[in-house]
């Protein structure tokens, strides 16, 4: 019994291109004898896939609306929005078909200039979760098997409402473009990093520190959008009034006073007719 594979040898080593292990066996016996031959073949499991790090591309795009049915292209920028218009943002991994890859988001923020250090700045996401200092919280959009995507784990989506930066001294809206920045990473789940992101209503300081450490250990990539501008008639140079809730008591008193005036007018009209 013998087995062999074809091997080629060279000055720096040997190679083979045979993927099948060939087994030869021969039995010799007398023609007048009955001999029973038993053979048992064990199947071999296929080899494990080899996973190696390599280059990958991430992209940040803005959808034309919150349905994410279409996206702005380079020729569409600068994109024009009005105040409080929803701005639908998507970050995704490009040209990869590995279903185990998971896209994670870190911080996302907005600046008035094409630089990460441009001032002022406003946060949209912090460690992948909506910035809680905003009264209009950024909305995270669920991306799963119902989203119509082949690899939903390769995508992250969120929506924020359009705003304008304000001059801190003059309290006037600044007529400037805004640029969206995000830190993202392509992550492989492991025992130390499950590549999951949760945003509970309350986080302990220890939990926040742990999430920050895990996020910083990933190979993050900085992405940015094209410019987004407000419509011209939305930009005002008048002093902005601070938002404050109108006291409910004043509303009640105003309604009562108006009702009293109506009653008095009716009473005067009736008295004149009686005379």
UniProtKB/TrEMBL annotation:
<dbReference type="InterPro" id="IPR001507">
    <property type="entry name" value="ZP_dom"/>
</dbReference>
<dbReference type="InterPro" id="IPR051148">
    <property type="entry name" value="Zona_Pellucida_Domain_gp"/>
</dbReference>
<dbReference type="GO" id="GO:0035804">
    <property type="term" value="F:structural constituent of egg coat"/>
</dbReference>
<keyword id="KW-0325">Glycoprotein</keyword>
<keyword id="KW-0472">Membrane</keyword>
<protein>
    <submittedName>
        <fullName>Zona pellucida sperm-binding protein 4-like</fullName>
    </submittedName>
</protein>
<feature type="transmembrane region" description="Helical">
    <location>
        <begin position="249"/>
        <end position="271"/>
    </location>
</feature>
<dbReference type="GO" id="GO:0032190">
    <property type="term" value="F:acrosin binding"/>
</dbReference>
<dbReference type="InterPro" id="IPR017977">
    <property type="entry name" value="ZP_dom_CS"/>
</dbReference>
<dbReference type="GO" id="GO:0007339">
    <property type="term" value="P:binding of sperm to zona pellucida"/>
</dbReference>
<dbReference type="GO" id="GO:0035805">
    <property type="term" value="C:egg coat"/>
</dbReference>
<keyword id="KW-0272">Extracellular matrix</keyword>
<dbReference type="Pfam" id="PF00100">
    <property type="entry name" value="Zona_pellucida"/>
</dbReference>
<dbReference type="InterPro" id="IPR055355">
    <property type="entry name" value="ZP-C"/>
</dbReference>
<keyword id="KW-1015">Disulfide bond</keyword>
<keyword id="KW-0812">Transmembrane</keyword>
<keyword id="KW-0165">Cleavage on pair of basic residues</keyword>
<keyword id="KW-0278">Fertilization</keyword>
<keyword id="KW-0964">Secreted</keyword>
<keyword id="KW-1003">Cell membrane</keyword>
<keyword id="KW-1133">Transmembrane helix</keyword>
<dbReference type="GO" id="GO:0005886">
    <property type="term" value="C:plasma membrane"/>
</dbReference>
<feature type="domain" description="ZP">
    <location>
        <begin position="1"/>
        <end position="202"/>
    </location>
</feature>
<dbReference type="GO" id="GO:0060468">
    <property type="term" value="P:prevention of polyspermy"/>
</dbReference>
<dbReference type="InterPro" id="IPR042235">
    <property type="entry name" value="ZP-C_dom"/>
</dbReference>
């Amino acid at each position: 019994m013998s087995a062999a594979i074809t091997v080629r040898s060279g000055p720096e080593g040997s190679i083979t291109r045979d993927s099948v292990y060939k087994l030869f066996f021969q039995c010799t016996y007398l023609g007048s004898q009955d001999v029973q031959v038993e053979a048992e073949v064990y199947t071999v499991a296929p080899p494990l896939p080899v996973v190696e790090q390599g280059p990958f591309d991430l992209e940040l795009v803005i959808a034309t609306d919150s349905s994410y049915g279409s996206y702005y292209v380079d020729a569409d920028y600068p994109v024009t929005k009005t105040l409080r218009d929803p701005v639908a943002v998507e970050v995704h991994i490009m040209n990869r078909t590995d279903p185990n890859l998971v896209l994670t988001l870190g911080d996302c923020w907005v600046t008035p200039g094409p630089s990460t250090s441009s001032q002022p700045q406003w946060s949209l996401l912090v460690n992948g979760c909506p910035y809680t200092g905003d009264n209009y919280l950024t909305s995270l959009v669920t991306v799963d098997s119902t989203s119509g995507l082949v690899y939903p784990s390769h995508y992250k989506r969120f929506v924020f409402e359009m705003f304008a930066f304000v001059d801190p001294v003059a309290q006037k809206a600044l007529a400037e473009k805004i640029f969206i920045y995000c830190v993202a990473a392509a992550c492989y789940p492991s025992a130390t990093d499950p590549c999951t992101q949760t945003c509970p209503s309350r986080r302990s300081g220890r939990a926040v520190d742990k999430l920050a450490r895990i996020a910083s250990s990933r190979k993050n990539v900085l992405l940015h959008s094209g410019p987004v501008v407000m419509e011209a008639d939305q930009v005002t140079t008048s002093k902005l009034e601070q938002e404050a809730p109108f006291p409910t008591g004043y509303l009640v008193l105003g309604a009562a006073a108006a009702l009293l005036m109506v009653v008095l007018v009716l009473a005067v009209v009736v008295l004149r007719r009686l005379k």
